[in-house]
Amino acid sequence: MAAVNSTSASMAATAVFLHRLPPGKPAVAFFRPSPQRRPIFKAESRRAAVKASSSDESAPPIDATELLTDLKEKWDGVENKPTVVLYGGGAIAAVWLASALVGAINSVPLLPKILELVGLGYTGWFVYRYLLFKSSRKELAEDIEALKKKIAGFE
């Protein structure tokens, strides 16, 4: 029985790691049944091949010229172009600054673990406060709907 479990575990581990293949390179993995157990079917005694590929063959190819023409049309439709450029540059700068800040916080020896515990505690509180009981779930749904209306400008 232990041999069956170890064979199943090795097949599962191989299947889990197959998704980490570089794009466009298929991989073939062969599984051999354990010699300690008898095969149920005759076909089970043979090798089974599994092929994994990271390319999506059903998706149509992307046309670069069509993409560029769509982007040009959208850019020409924008009335206030300097504002869009300013917001885009600000967003890139904010992401860079946030990355630098997270890297600095992560380099402090004990702080990341403390922040992990704070996040875990908040998650536990949120589940207890809003998700555990039916009445609190209704309250959360009402709060979310009110926020949606406030953002959309209906209120």
Automatic annotation (TrEMBL):
<feature type="transmembrane region" description="Helical">
    <location>
        <begin position="114"/>
        <end position="132"/>
    </location>
</feature>
<keyword id="KW-0812">Transmembrane</keyword>
<feature type="transmembrane region" description="Helical">
    <location>
        <begin position="84"/>
        <end position="108"/>
    </location>
</feature>
<keyword id="KW-0472">Membrane</keyword>
<dbReference type="InterPro" id="IPR025564">
    <property type="entry name" value="CAAD_dom"/>
</dbReference>
<keyword id="KW-1133">Transmembrane helix</keyword>
<protein>
    <recommendedName>
        <fullName>Cyanobacterial aminoacyl-tRNA synthetase CAAD domain-containing protein</fullName>
    </recommendedName>
</protein>
<dbReference type="GO" id="GO:0009535">
    <property type="term" value="C:chloroplast thylakoid membrane"/>
</dbReference>
<dbReference type="Pfam" id="PF14159">
    <property type="entry name" value="CAAD"/>
</dbReference>
<feature type="domain" description="Cyanobacterial aminoacyl-tRNA synthetase CAAD">
    <location>
        <begin position="70"/>
        <end position="153"/>
    </location>
</feature>
<dbReference type="InterPro" id="IPR033344">
    <property type="entry name" value="CURT1"/>
</dbReference>
